[in-house]
Design brief:
The radius of gyration is 18 Å and the shape is flat. Helices cover 72% and strands 0% of the residues. The chain starts with a helix and ends in a 9-residue tail after the last helix. It is mainly alpha-helical and 102 residues long. The protein has three helices and no strands.
Length: 102
């Protein structure tokens, strides 16, 4: 389990540095030749969605003695499906608080 966690965390850290830092560097250095405005609206909703999708992982991990029971994979899969449905609904309707109304 420790190798799996290290692999997941290492891969995510690498993705953050490569998938986010490199495009920002290219945009600011070669295209915009300096800083560029990045409009960010409704950031609280996006952070809240991340926290809500992380909660089942933390609750199950702590409640079961820092181990993951076999059935927890289904919980994570259903959480991911719910997240994808909400993300698609927000993109198609243009409402950042979908399905709770605008």
């Amino acid at each position: 389990t420790s190798m799996a966690l290290a692999n997941a965390l290492g891969a995510n850290v690498q993705n953050v540095f490569l998938a986010l830092a490199v495009p920002w560097f290219i945009q600011s250095w070669f295209i915009a030749h300096g800083p560029f405005p990045m409009p960010v609206q409704n950031l609280f909703i996006a952070v809240l969605e991340c926290v809500i999708t992380l909660m089942p992982v933390l609750i199950i991990y702590i409640a079961f003695g820092f181990s993951m029971p076999r059935w927890s994979g289904w919980v994570y899969l259903l959480t991911y499906v719910a997240y994808v449905i909400c993300a698609l609904g927000q993109q198609t309707t243009g409402c950042s608080t979908w399905p709770f109304g605008c």
